[in-house]
Specification:
heterotrimer; A mainly alpha; B alpha+beta; C mainly alpha; A: Four Helix Bundle (Hemerythrin (Met), subunit A); 7 helices; 0% strand; C: mainly alpha; Cytochrome C Oxidase, Chain A; 17 helices; globular; disordered N terminus
């Protein structure tokens, strides 16, 4: 459980520490004008960004707990390391590219460079789809070579981890799809811009998760 | 006002109940008096807090209840008071925790000289293993478990040959000797609990857990499973008997070792045929049973079950009860089988007899019976063929009048009340869930359709 | 732009009042309607779970008397009762119900930040409830694995509902977690982003604090349940071996190897212990507000109360293995977890002291909500103190898995939160419905519930001392239990049935109030918090009419010296001039 604990403890400590900072040195029972109180206002973010950050904390907890289970299960006697299919390297590169392109798109979106948004979104979509297809191929390859999910716990974890990671990406693709439809529907640029920014953060997060997962599976 | 009075009455009432309650800890039978001591400390600390805080609250409710023109005081916080309360609470908590941790350290560190007994749990049955003269257990493996090797022993491991295997829920341990219980489960989680010993621990399949204690008085103590382990969890009972050393040694000597069990020759059906002549007078030439003589069909019944029942009749676990008219007839017959080999022979012969389904004599509502049988099916199998692993005999195709009578016997306590008849005890608990004669008939009518 | 972005942009947000019945009451995005939907659904399943508990008690009090209870459905009843009460009633009611209703009103917002997501959260929750209820009717029935769903037993032969029941249970939990996450993102974002001008975090009522921290706990802890549910589904359907070791199940080898049942327990309780506080923290917060309002006194030590909530929330993540002292885990963990567990008693005790000190020199109105609040303090003290027995690893040895545990957790997380639920419903009823309830019926309801539940659970602790194990369908003849223990069981059953039946008083009160209750004053308790200052009662869609409120003070300005009234609402400016429409002001000297 160490991994889950450390990750959670860090997140909790950050949050609780921030909350505590709000409360020291304040005397809540002293009344004051609303405007004065606002000077102590801590937050300057947009609601969707806060919601996304919160969701990333939830997803982090989710993956950290699976990894905790992974590390605990690994120590039991019957663990045989699995040989990862080599296609995973290609997939990793594709996912990194998707993230890079998303960042590029985002930068143009923020600078109001509308013309670059459409190709950027399409390219990211294509790359991400390629990544999912590549993951699917990796599954096929494993099944074809007799490395079924039941053969060993390391196999089971591989399928589980890639599966839930893929589902998170699919969820991201839904938001990506909405942003793309909006862009092509010629909707207000502000909304699209915001979507692209949020998606970019989410893509970076999932790339990071994948790198951690992949690194862990390689090293064990 | 009534609220304050009630609060005070509840505090006083709780204390009175605590003092007068006849329901309290069982008499200690192990070295774990320190656990009871820790509980006492906790009672004093928590009891004081319970009384103090609630009486204070009741006082507030009386003193500061709403009165016309009254006004509450305004006091956002009182750092000094809060600091004091924090410190006092911390001291109280430490007072409870510290002895607890010391006792736990004792529990975690097993004394070197402790002898070892293994308790093996399975759905819904306790069995035990003693290491034998070499003091070492042989290797076991869940994948090697089968009907002939219920402990999953490795037949080639020299350490395991002298292991004493007790395939019965009753264990013996010697008085005043520290004993380390190794705990192992064959299927799901169980928990080894003897209330009088105070300590308990889960049995976890795939690993070995332990607890230790020194029994301090002789007697028979019930073993309970206290981790939900399926539908018959509540019927998973056993016993630990604390003996004087001599009695313990004598008991242990009488138990078979793994090697001895393996050396027992299979029953000889030809020899058994001659002995069966006695049985055939009532049970029939073909073991088909004869209702008029109250003898059930035995052909087709599993060998392990017949063996256990014959042994039960011989030892008095069955057929010794006053009201068990027919069981009392069987007991002297079983006594004519002088030893284990004789029983094995006659059982082997019975296995050769043709298995014709007994005629159906009981009618009932098959639909209701089928619904009720769902509970029975957990052990006796959906097709009524019985499951040896859970000690449940075959029902389908056997004499239905006999099943009905046994159900009634289990319900009435005619069968299953002997202290060493754990299997009968289980069935008794189950039979009690069938409420009347009609329900019994319905179930048996359903069994007749299987 | 400050953090009050939404407040500042308020004029840009158009609030289309829903027109049709469907958009107003069914597909509503109004947090108040969603709260009521959540509340009604939760109470509906709660009533089912109450009936289940009555059936369970019938068997325990009068074994072998009722032919409709057998071991199979008994274990199914036990399991469903526990799961429904913990997850589908209490979690959903406190966060989905009270969280939804109170957060936007108390922080001065028009609605949740994401109303559509909020609506979706309710409907997804309803789906999870439906899946759960379907499991009663599938072949083999619902799962009988106990609410902890421990493998191998949850997915091995010998347990009721091993074919379909467990699958539906796991699926339902997964769907519930999705619903909870949707709601939780809303609550967190609303608290952080949509507070009105002047509503600093440290001016928020403790109800909001409790719900806010509980939501954070839920968001971080429910993934552990999700992970364990997914892995168990894999073990069950794909025959993997995450949790399943090699076993011989009823003489058959189901083909698993090497898995660890303890791993499941770690994951489960990593969720399961914070879950206790997901239920308890909102109750703590709400009860603080009830006590303060009806005692006409500020909550004593507000900052300490906030810190205690935060500390309890943080600590609740490092105490989980106190549920596993006798599980067979490494016994050395016992030292660590016993220590952390007993440390958590300190902030909890401080909360209790502060509640009681709030009453000191107060001006206590013993209205129905206050009765329930004081009843809560009593039962919570009792339940909290028995927790000190079980948290201490040594004492847990004799007491774990006995009725002492059952009595303890029902006291602390059954009776106590339910008393708060009732107190809160009575307290906010005038605001939610615009009508008053019947005070006499409410008082009867309190007395029956409070005294009845104490009669159930006080004696039950002593069955635990005796060593009577929990989750036993029947005891049969035993040596260690005196025959009188069965009489005690019968008494407990009578008390339980009594409590169950008297809940009719509550529903009666609800019906009478809705049909012919007196029209409620907008602020019948003279409370300070913002939800009582809405222009309409019940509040309309958008809550605040044309202008959002501004917050000028904390939520506990009761009996402030120098003021004529004994309360100053949060939206009254600090200056001497009272707003035109209200009569607050400095007393003339």
């Amino acid at each position: 459980m160490e991994i889950g604990l450390i990750v959670l403890a860090t997140m909790l400590a950050a949050l609780l520490g921030w909350l505590l900072r709000q409360s020291f040195n304040t005397q809540p029972w002293v009344a004051g004008a609303a405007a004065e109180a606002d000077h102590q206002a801590p937050f300057n973010a947009r609601p969707k960004l806060v919601a996304l950050t919160t969701f990333l904390a939830v997803a982090t907890s989710f993956f950290a707990l699976i990894l905790s289970a992974y590390s605990l299960r690994m120590e039991l006697g019957d663990w045989v390391p699995m040989t990862e299919p080599s296609i995973l390297w290609t997939n990793t590169v594709v996912l990194i590219l998707a993230s890079v392109v998303f960042q590029w798109t985002r930068n143009h979106a923020v600078n109001g460079n509308v013309a670059r948004i459409k190709p950027g979104l399409l390219l990211t979509g294509a790359l991400t789809t390629a990544f999912l297809a590549g993951q699917w191929l990796a599954w096929q390859e494993l099944n074809a070579s007799g490395q079924y999910i039941t053969v060993n716990p390391s196999n089971a974890f591989f399928f589980l981890l890639t599966g839930v990671h893929g589902l998170h990406i699919l969820g991201g693709m839904y938001v990506w799809g909405r942003a793309t439809v909006r862009t092509f529907g010629g909707q207000e640029m502000d909304a699209v811009k915001h979507s692209v920014e949020l998606c970019t953060i989410y893509w970076h997060f999932l790339l990071l998760v994948w790198l951690v997962l992949f690194g862990l599976m390689l090293s064990t | 006002m009534p609220l304050a009075v009630v609060l005070i009455l509840l505090v006083v009432g709780s204390l009175v109940f605590h003092v007068l309650s006849p329901w309290t800890f069982t008499e200690l039978a192990s070295n774990w008096g320190m656990i009871d001591f820790t509980i006492d400390i906790t009672f004093w600390v928590t009891g004081a807090v319970f009384v103090a805080v609630n009486l204070f609250m009741a006082y507030c409710v009386i003193k500061f209840r709403h009165k016309k023109d009254a006004r509450a005081t305004y006091e956002p916080e009182n750092k000094k008071l809060e600091t004091w309360l924090t410190v006092l609470t911390s001291i109280g908590v430490a007072a409870m925790l510290t002895p607890g941790l010391f006792v736990w350290a004792d529990f975690v560190n097993v004394p070197e000289e402790a002898h070892v007994v293994e308790a093996v749990g399975q759905q819904w049955h306790w069995t035990y293993r003693y290491p034998g003269e070499d003091g070492k257990f042989g290797e076991v493996d869940a994948e090697r478990i089968n009907a002939d090797n219920p402990f999953g022993m490795d037949p080639d491991d020299p350490n395991g040959q002298d292991d004493v295997l007790v395939y019965h829920p009753e264990a013996h341990i010697p008085l005043d000797k520290p004993v380390k219980w190794l705990l192992r489960s064959k299927d799901v989680l169980h928990n080894f609990t003897v209330t009088e010993f105070r300590v308990k621990m889960d049995l976890v399949p795939g690993m070995q857990t332990f607890l230790w204690l020194t029994p301090t008085r002789t007697g028979r103590f019930e073993v309970l499973c206290e981790e939900l382990c399926g539908i018959a969890h509540f019927a998973m009972r056993g016993a630990v008997i604390v003996d004087e050393q001599d009695d313990f040694d004598a008991w242990l000597d009488a138990q078979p070792t793994f090697a001895e069990i393996n050396a027992i020759p299979a029953g000889n059906a030809a020899v058994g045929a001659a002995q069966y002549a006695v049985c055939s007078a009532c049970h029939g030439q073909q073991g088909e049973g004869l209702a008029a003589l109250n003898a059930p069909k035995i052909a087709g019944q599993s060998a392990w079950y017949l063996t256990r029942q014959l042994n039960g009749y011989k030892s008095g676990a069955r057929g010794a009860q006053q009201d068990d008219t027919y069981g009392r007839q069987m007991a002297p017959m079983a006594a004519t089988l002088v030893d284990a080999a004789a029983i094995a022979n006659v059982v082997a012969h019975i296995q050769t007899l043709p298995d014709e389904p007994a005629p159906a004599t009981i009618e009932g509502n098959v639909e209701n019976g089928g619904r009720a049988y769902r509970v029975c099916a957990y052990c006796h199998a959906g097709d009524g063929s019985g499951i040896q692993a859970v000690n449940a005999p075959r029902l389908a195709g056997m004499s239905d009048w006999y099943l009905a009578r046994q159900m009634q016997n289990f319900k009435d306590g005619v069968r299953g009340t002997h202290p060493s008849d754990f299997y009968g005890f289980q069935m008794g608990l189950m039979a009690n869930t069938v409420h009347d004669e009609q329900a019994i008939k319905d179930i048996i009518a359903y069994i007749n359709t299987l | 732009m400050g953090y009050v972005a939404i407040a500042d942009r308020d004029h840009e947000v158009e609030h289309h009042d829903p027109q049709t019945f469907i958009s107003k009451y069914v597909w509503s995005q109004d947090h108040k309607v969603i709260a009521i939907q959540y509340g009604c659904t939760a109470i509906f399943v709660g009533v089912i779970a109450l009936v289940l508990s009555a059936m369970m008690r019938l068997q325990l009090g009068f074994p072998d008397t009722f032919s409709f209870i057998n071991p199979e459905n008994y274990y199914q009843i036990v399991t469903m009762h526990g799961m429904i009460m913990v997850i589908y009633l209490l979690t959903a009611l406190f966060l989905g119900g009270f969280g939804n209703y109170l957060i936007p009103l108390m922080v001065g917002s028009r609605d949740m930040v994401f109303p559509y997501l909020n609506m979706l959260s309710y409907w997804v929750y309803l789906v999870s409830v439906i899946i759960l209820l379907i499991s009663f009717f599938v072949p083999g029935g619902s799962t009988g694995a106990g609410w902890t769903l421990y493998p191998p037993q949850a997915i091995a032969q010998g347990t009721p509902g091993v074919d379909w029941g467990i699958l539906l249970m796991l699926a339902s939990l997964g769907v519930f977690i999705v619903a909870f996450t949707m709601g939780g993102l809303n609550y967190v974002t609303t608290v952080l982003q949509a507070r009105c001008r002047g509503m600093t975090l440290m001016r928020m009522p403790l109800s909001v604090w409790g719900i806010f921290i509980a939501t954070i706990l839920g968001l971080l802890a429910f993934p552990a349940l999700l992970v364990s549910a997914i892995m168990m589904l894999f073990d069950k359907t794909l025959a993997t071996s995450f949790f399943m070791p090699a076993i011989s199940s009823m003489g058959v080898d189901p083909g698993h190897t090497g898995g660890s049942p303890i791993l499941f327990q770690h994951l489960f309780w990593f969720f399961g212990h914070p879950e206790v506080y997901i239920v308890a923290l909102p109750a703590f917060g709400i009860v603080s507000d009830l006590l303060s309002t009806h005692a006409r006194k500020n909550i004593f030590g507000y900052r300490m109360m906030v810190w205690a909530i935060i500390a309890i929330g943080g600590l609740s993540f490092i105490v989980w293995a106190h549920h596993m002292y006798v599980s067979g885990m490494n016994p050395y963990f016992g030292f660590f977890f016993a220590t952390t567990t007993l440390i958590i008693a300190v902030p909890t005790a401080l909360k209790v002291y502060n509640w009681v000190l709030t009453l000191w020199e107060g001006n206590i109105h013993l209205r129905v909500p206050m009765l329930f609040a004081i009843g809560f303090v009593f039962t919570f003290i009792h339940g909290g103190l028995t927790g000190l027995f079980l948290g201490n690893v040594t004492i847990d040895l004799p007491l774990s898995d006995t009725y002492f545990v059952v009595a303890h957790f029902h006291m602390v997380m059954g009776v106590s939160p339910v008393l708060v639920v009732f107190g809160a419903i009575y307290h906010w009823w005038p605001k939610i419905t615009g009508r008053m309830y019947n005070e006499t019926l409410g008082k009867w309801h309190f007395w029956m519930t409070f005294l009845g539940t104490y009669s159930i659970y006080l004696p039950m602790h002593y069955l635990g001392f005796q060593g009577v194990p929990r989750r036993y369908f029947a005891m049969g003849n035993t040596d260690f239990m005196p025959a009188s223990a069965q009489d005690l069981n019968a008494f407990i059953t009578m008390a339980a049935l009594f409590v169950a039946v008297t809940q009719v008083l509550f529903f009666l009160n609800v019906i009478i109030s809705l049909r012919s209750g007196k029209k409620a004053d907008p602020n019948p308790w003279d409370a300070t918090t913002l939800e009582w200052q809405t222009p309409d009662t019940p509040p309309k869609h958008g809550n605040w009419g044309h202008d959002l409120p501004e917050c000028h003070r904390w939520a506990y300005d009761y009996s402030v010296p120098g003021y004529k009234d004994d309360f100053i609402p949060q939206n009254v400016p600090a200056s001497d001039e009272a707003p035109a429409d209200r009569q607050h002001g400095v007393e003339e000297h």
